[in-house]
């Protein structure tokens, strides 16, 4: 039997469900709206999908409503519904829900989907307990409604995405800048920021911010930063890829005039499968150049050399830091770094234009051999764009390392901190360890959780990391016992004193250790994916 | 960038007595840009200072039509000082049913003569807009446009100019007799009287007695607040030389000797000889003077151009007594009529080549400016705002 109070039960459950939708949307967003990943996360803990207290109260309410007479059935049902759905405090939120257009769409549809069953049973004349039961079910299933709404919106999202891409293309067309595409397994972001700073000597340059390197990331950058900006002469587009075909799609949006390939290496190998696939994916950038375009290759990488040998386009520039001048001449390399030195103050080397013989002494605060290659790639492009070598050299002197990429600083306590927390890779690791090794006074501590996402190579590379660490560090802290086991095996293969190796569970413990044991003059290297607050 | 044509806005007309000459210069420039690499955008500034753009502005004949601005295709526009626009705002006061839009411009070519175009005012706007442009910057344009300041700068640079004095309109109104006495005391007749900032020959008088002197100053004072007075160089010829360049790369053209003047060139002589403007005025090229003097004038031209921080192009006018080997710099035109194409033609430049060189110079100057730092990091604002908030607290 329905009465005046009956709708109250449904309304309370509906309000509760809506609130739960909003809270769950935050996690759905963190999982990038991938329903499978989100549901997997949800099902991993029962309290997430079946909160026991609320379910118990809700069921109690339904039972009471079923046993009471009207109007008390509705009142009891409503009261218990209110108790059940009354929101718990959420605790500390690291990343709040960002109200994007997409979230708004999903929530709007989910609100309606939630309301349908409740309104349906009410309209069918069902009594309070039935409405309460349906309400509880709707409330419980909120994560499912999110996934379902998202699925329902798939065609609409595709249209929105296409429109977004088209808008980005229109924005680019209004200024028609020269487009420089940069890809590679690593070194992309660093090379991009160096190149932007150098080309800005003469041109109005825009580079995609941070690591925006997916199709949607690049178009977001264009729509957000370049709409209504008609100045841009050069657009630098960083192109990343997890699967073949991705770079080709970015090239459709930002057709490159110049392509730069920094490195081909085992980064993200887990997703690619083999280095040959990585090479194929990166070559898409070169293949999308017009015939009069310019490709710039890192000659020191065999996979990239192979790209060069494919002979497209006609203008191909190459840089090397490993060849001698005679070899460079013989192999037709365009730019060469010679006499590379690294001290605690940074790198210095001599950049040589092999064909013309033009040279410049380059000095920079940057560290790591790989940065010599990154700089040479930038120099090759900047010279091609008619910036005098002397001006380039002057600009390079004041370049800053990108955030968390081999940054060296000294704390108030006199301890030198080397931060290389961003996406460590086998080559970067060597540079970082060498830098640590340059600190000849005091202890040299390495803190690392090891390298990840290297696929089949991961075990071997981490073992190598261990052997190298033994060479350059005096103390080693490994974070996470199981994942660092290969590193430990590497260390044990050397004569390194096992008493100087510590395995801890968390970063906090390692920090505590170094704060207790290190003093002025000592150095510590943070390697890979650690927060930048230390 | 490589694949795309450069958009060149050609500005002509203007609030100037040389409005019509500028229209002719503008048409010549638009016709001469190679169409495969440049897309010209005509921008016409009316006599009363309205800005319009559109295809009908590409035809000289349309300017005979009083209803030009009502023609289809004509739209209001303005050059935006907002650096993000980097060009023209077209239809800026769009209403409900129309849209305003931005036309990106790569290079601006101010083909404007005289006031509000050649005097640095427009160049100031172009500096704000941060768009490369052809010709002198604000300082060079302003110096070249003001005959008094031109001579001060040239004299200071040790270059030969005739003696002169200048009179302010207020001083003339207050004590004409004293000023006449001063002039007669200093110079012998004949004497030239010139408004400081007027192009061509408008308002210029040549006085051979006191009555004419007074009348000429009255005329000049109706055109400008400041009046230049200098002795006329008798038995002299006029020699012109054009200069192009920027930085440390300048070149001077062959010389010309304009003909057909009685006492001096009148406006009609200078520009009204035909639709092609200056080109068909009667002249001798190269000027019939000996090589040594010609070389000296060319060297002087470059030195004078540098003395006023010149860039791009200028035509520099001289008074000379070839027999005596005497030569005096007379004036600097930082946007000469027809760009002195006829002189560059003698030097082996086609019109297109002159324009391309000028674009190149404008771009080089702009790139140079980019090397200056404008964005010196300072914490002034944050300090000030902290102080501000403290003040608020104290009051609260």
What does this protein look like?
The complex is a heterodimer of chains A (534) and B (396). Chain A is built from 22 helices and 15 strands. Chain A has 534 residues and is α/β, with parallel strands linked by helices. Chain A has three domains: 6-152, no CATH class; 159-397, UDP-N-acetylmuramoyl-L-alanine:D-glutamate ligase (3-Layer(aba) Sandwich); 407-527, Mur ligase, C-terminal domain (Protein-Tyrosine Phosphatase, Chain A, Alpha-Beta Complex), CATH 3.90.190.20. In chain A, α1 (6-30) runs parallel beside α5 (72-85) and α9 (154-175) packs across α11 (215-226). Residues 530-534 of chain A have low confidence and may be disordered. Chain B has 396 residues and is α+β, with helices and mostly antiparallel strands. Chain B has three domains: 6-134, Rossmann fold, CATH 3.40.50; 145-160 and 234-370, D-amino Acid Aminotransferase, Chain A, domain 1, CATH 3.30.470.20; 165-231, 2-Layer Sandwich (Dna Ligase, domain 1), CATH 3.30.1490.20. Chain B has twelve helices and 16 strands. Chain B has helices spanning 19-32, 121-129, 138-145, 147-156, 169-174, 176-186, 210-223, 267-271, 291-307, 341-346, 351-370, 380-395, and strands at residues 6-13, 38-45, 51-53, 75-79, 87-90, 101-104, 107-110, 165-168, 191-195, 205-207, 226-231, 237-246, 249-258, 283-284, 312-321, 326-333. In chain B, strands 6-5-4-3-2-1-7 form a seven-stranded mixed sheet. A five-stranded antiparallel sheet of chain B has the order 14-13-12-15-16. In chain B, α3 (138-145) packs across α4 (147-156). Classes of the chains: A alpha/beta (534), B alpha+beta (396). Chain A binds chain B through residues 174-178, 200-202, 204, 228-231, 233-234, 257, 290, 292, 391, and chain B through 1-4, 83-87, 102, 104, 130, 367, 370-371.
């Amino acid at each position: 039997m329905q009465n005046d109070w009956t709708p109250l039960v449904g309304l309370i459950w509906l309000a509760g469900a809506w609130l739960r939708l909003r809270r769950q949307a935050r996690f759905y967003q963190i999982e990038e709206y991938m329903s499978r990943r989100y549901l997997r996360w949800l099902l991993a803990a029962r309290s997430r999908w079946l909160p026991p207290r609320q379910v118990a109260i809700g069921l109690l309410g339904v039972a009471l409503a079923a046993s009471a007479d009207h109007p008390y059935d509705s009142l009891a049902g409503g009261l218990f519904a209110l108790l059940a759905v009354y929101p718990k405090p959420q605790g500390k939120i690291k990343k709040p829900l960002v109200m994007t257009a997409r979230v708004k769409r999903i929530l709007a549809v989910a609100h309606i989907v939630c309301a349908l069953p409740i309104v349906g049973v009410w309209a069918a004349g069902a009594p309070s307990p039935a409405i309460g039961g349906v309400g509880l079910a709707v409330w419980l299933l909120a994560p499912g409604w999110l996934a379902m709404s998202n699925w329902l919106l798939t065609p609409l999202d595709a249209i929105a995405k296409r429109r977004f891409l088209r808008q980005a293309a229109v924005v680019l067309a209004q200024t028609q800048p020269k487009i420089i595409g940069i890809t590679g397994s690593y070194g992309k972001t660093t090379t991009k920021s160096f190149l932007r700073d150098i080309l800005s000597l003469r041109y109005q340059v825009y580079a995609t911010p941070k690591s925006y390197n997916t199709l949607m990331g690049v178009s977001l950058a264009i729509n957000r930063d370049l709409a209504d900006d008609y100045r841009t002469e050069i657009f630098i587009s960083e192109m990343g890829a997890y699967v073949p075909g991705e770079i080709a799609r970015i090239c459709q949006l930002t057709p490159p005039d110049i392509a730069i390939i920094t490195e081909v290496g085992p980064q993200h190998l887990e997703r690619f499968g083999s280095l040959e696939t990585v090479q194929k994916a990166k070559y898409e950038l070169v293949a999308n150049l017009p015939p009069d375009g310019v490709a710039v290759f890192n000659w020191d990488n065999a996979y990239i050399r192979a790209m060069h040998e494919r002979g497209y386009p006609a203008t191909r520039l190459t840089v090397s830091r490993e060849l001698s001048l005679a070899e460079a001449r013989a192999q037709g390399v365009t730019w060469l770094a010679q006499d590379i030195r690294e001290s605690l103050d940074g790198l210095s080397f001599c950049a040589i234009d092999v064909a013309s013989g033009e040279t410049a002494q380059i000095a920079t605060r940057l560290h790591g051999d790989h940065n010599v290659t990154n700089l040479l790639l930038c120099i090759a492009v900047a010279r091609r764009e008619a910036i005098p070598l002397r001006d380039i050299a002057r600009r390079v002197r004041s370049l800053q390392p990108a955030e968390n990429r081999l940054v060296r600083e000294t704390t108030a306590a006199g301890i030198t901190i080397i931060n290389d927390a961003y996406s460590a890779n086998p080559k970067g690791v060597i540079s970082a360890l060498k830098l640590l090794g340059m600190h000849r006074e005091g202890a040299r501590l390495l803190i690392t959780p090891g390298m990840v996402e290297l696929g089949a190579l991961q075990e071997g590379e981490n073992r190598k990391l261990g052997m190298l660490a033994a060479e350059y560090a005096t103390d080693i802290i490994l974070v996470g016992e199981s994942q660092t086991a290969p590193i430990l095996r590497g260390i044990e293969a050397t004569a390194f004193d096992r008493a100087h190796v510590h395995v801890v569970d968390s970063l906090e413990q390692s920090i505590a250790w170094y704060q207790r044991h290190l003093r002025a003059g000592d150095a510590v290297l943070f390697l890979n994916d650690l927060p930048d607050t230390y | 960038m490589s694949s795309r044509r450069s958009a060149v806005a050609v500005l002509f007309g203007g609030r100037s007595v040389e409005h019509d000459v500028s229209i002719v210069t503008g048409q010549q420039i638009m016709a001469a840009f190679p169409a495969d690499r440049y897309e010209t955008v005509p921008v016409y500034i009316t006599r009363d200072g309205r800005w319009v753009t559109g295809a009908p502005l590409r035809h000289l004949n349309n300017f005979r039509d009083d209803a030009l601005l009502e023609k289809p295709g004509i739209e209001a526009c303005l050059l935006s000082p907002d650096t993000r626009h980097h060009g023209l705002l077209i239809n800026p006061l769009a209403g409900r049913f129309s849209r305003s839009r931005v036309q990106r411009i790569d290079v601006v070519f101010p083909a404007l003569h005289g006031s509000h175009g050649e005097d640095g005012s427009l160049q100031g706007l172009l500096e704000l807009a941060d768009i490369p442009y052809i010709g002198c910057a604000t300082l060079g344009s302003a110096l070249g446009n003001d005959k008094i300041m031109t001579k001060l700068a040239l004299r200071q640079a040790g270059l030969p100019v005739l003696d002169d004095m200048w009179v302010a309109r207020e001083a003339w109104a207050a004590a004409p007799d004293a000023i006449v006495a001063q002039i007669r005391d200093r110079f012998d007749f004949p004497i030239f009287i010139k408004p400081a900032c007027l192009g061509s020959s408008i308002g210029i008088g040549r006085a051979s007695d006191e009555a004419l002197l007074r009348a000429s100053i009255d005329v000049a004072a109706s055109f400008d607040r400041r009046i230049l007075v200098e002795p006329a160089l008798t038995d002299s010829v006029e020699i012109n030389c054009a200069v192009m360049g920027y930085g440390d790369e300048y070149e001077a053209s062959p010389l010309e000797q304009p003909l057909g003047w009685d006492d001096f060139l009148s406006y009609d002589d200078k520009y009204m000889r035909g639709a092609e403007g200056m080109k068909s005025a009667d002249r001798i090229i190269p000027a019939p003077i000996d090589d040594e003097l010609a070389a000296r004038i060319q060297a002087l031209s470059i030195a004078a151009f540098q003395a006023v921080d010149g860039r791009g192009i200028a035509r520099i006018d001289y008074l000379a007594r070839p027999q005596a080997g005497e030569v005096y710099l007379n004036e600097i035109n930082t946007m000469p009529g027809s760009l002195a194409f006829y002189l560059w033609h003698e030097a082996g430049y086609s019109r297109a080549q002159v324009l391309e060189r000028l674009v190149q110079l404008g771009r080089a100057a702009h790139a140079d400016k980019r090397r200056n730092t404008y964005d010196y990091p300072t914490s002034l604002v944050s300090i000030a705002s902290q102080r501000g908030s403290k003040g608020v607290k104290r009051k609260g």
